[in-house]
Design goal:
Cation_efflux_TM, Alpha-Beta Plaits, three-stranded mixed sheet, 66% helix, mainly alpha
């Protein structure tokens, strides 16, 4: 997906969020402000994507030899915490309104603002749908499901596949936003013509707060795995070990570490023991292992250490000794 697409989406989300939140504040409607809060989570996602694109162009430094990819993870946690703080405030207000019922809502402004939210989501869904169709028509060649090679054609095919999936995922997400906006519009219609049913406003706040949690808990889980240097959910360490063991002259895998620098950038360090008498094939084995990790499993970086098999592990590799103990 081109950078221009994210910039255009960013501008539209900023404008829509500002309109909804200010309209909800003027109308004294928590439901609209919670709808705007849900849109803030989408806005945070786009900002993080742009941040990742910017960081990918920055070179590592002497102090930060891996680069600045973890800034994306840190930004994700901060943005989610900000959303939770705002959501807690809105929930507190919703509880107070439910208990005391001493509030007034401007039904006209609420109805107009909710209608604007529905219209914007309809337009964005239409544009995303058109973008997906245009992309599929212009790149309709078949995509292979076999492990990708290092050829330019394979990389070209992969990039188009991921772009198409990204647009479709954004369309589905926009559809969910549209359903939520329609719910706010229905509540606004009820409150405008039946003010005695103003309890619909805090009820919408409760429902939409649950949706906000459901859309952000995955972000927290993924960032937690990255910070704890866990294996990404799309990789299977046992499968990696099996494929490494299939390489000729590999006797055993002494150590294997797989973790993520950030989302989509996985790193691996592997220590292989080779069969005795295979020292002349070390370069070939290392090349095959690197090709397997980088191309088949899509690693961002990898390091392959080789050693001839011995009955006792060499005292020079303390990390392997501790992992095998």
């Amino acid at each position: 997906v081109p950078r221009r697409y994210y910039l255009e989406s960013l501008m539209s989300y900023v404008l829509t969020f500002s309109t909804l939140f200010s309209g909800g504040y003027v109308a004294n409607s928590l439901a609209i402000m919670t709808d705007a809060l849900h849109m803030l989570t989408d806005l945070s996602g786009i900002i993080l994507t742009l941040l990742a694109l910017w960081l990918s162009a920055k070179s590592p430094t002497k102090r930060f030899t891996f680069g600045f990819h973890r800034l994306e993870v840190l930004s994700a946690i901060i943005s989610v915490l900000l959303v939770y703080i705002l959501m807690a405030f809105l929930l507190y207000e919703a509880v107070q309104r439910t208990i005391h019922m001493d509030y007034e809502i401007n039904g006209d402004i609420m109805l107009i603002t909710a209608a604007v939210g529905v219209a914007v989501n309809l337009i964005m869904g239409f544009l995303l749908n058109q973008s997906g169709h245009l992309h599929s028509h212009s790149h309709s060649h078949p995509h292979s499901h076999v492990p990708q090679s290092n050829s330019p054609n394979a990389a070209h095919s992969s990039s188009h596949g991921h772009s198409s999936l990204a647009v479709r995922a954004a369309f589905v997400h926009a559809l969910g936003d549209l359903v939520q906006s329609i719910g706010v519009l229905v509540a606004a219609y009820i409150i405008r013509f039946k003010p005695e049913y103003k309890i619909a406003d805090p009820i919408c706040t409760y429902v939409f707060s649950i949706l906000v949690v459901l859309t952000t808990v995955r972000i927290l889980c993924d960032t937690g795995v990255i910070i704890l240097e866990g294996v990404p959910r799309h990789l299977n360490v046992d499968r990696i070990k099996e494929d490494l063991m299939k390489i000729e002259d590999v006797y055993s895998i002494e150590d294997l570490n797989v973790w993520s620098l950030t989302a989509g950038k996985t790193t691996a360090i592997v220590h292989l023991q080779l069969v005795p008498g295979s020292s002349s094939k070390w370069e070939e084995v290392q090349s095959k292992a690197r090709h397997l990790l980088l191309n088949t499993f899509g690693m961002y970086k990898c390091s392959v250490q080789l050693q001839s098999y011995r009955q006792e592990i060499s005292k020079t590799c303390t990390s392997c000794q501790s992992s095998s103990a």
